[in-house]
Design goal:
It contains 4 helices and no strands. By secondary structure, it is mainly α.
Length: 152
Amino acid sequence: MRNKLMMLSMIPTLFLAAPVMADKHESCEDKDKYGDMKNHKQHDGIPRMLKGIELTEEQKTEIKKLVEVQEIDKKEDMRSHWELYKKLNQLAFNDRLDQNKLENIINEATEAHADKLAQKAKLNNAIFNVLTPEQQQQLKQKIAEFEQNKRD
């Protein structure tokens, strides 16, 4: 219950912050700054978690197909996100705040977020199942190292 209340209180803030974060930042165009960030738009379709793991061409092709399907879904998710954002703004910038409508928008956003998490988990599982047992072990090791570094 406490987590749900915390998440519900953060959703309006995230909706209001989204346009600010979505603007193209001038420093992204700076060629000498930020090292790898200058190439962040160039993506080969292979998730970063697999960098450093030797993949066959067949595996790369299959993983790229899985990621492409998810990208199509992501575009639709973004459209629905912006629709929720518009609804929230229309509601927030009125003389009175309708609590029932606000709760409906929050519930919609919560469900959408849960769906995105489920899609991400399904994609990661599908990618994991493309890998050989040795590659799976390498990936598990990379994840463990990453989590350990995050804690430190």
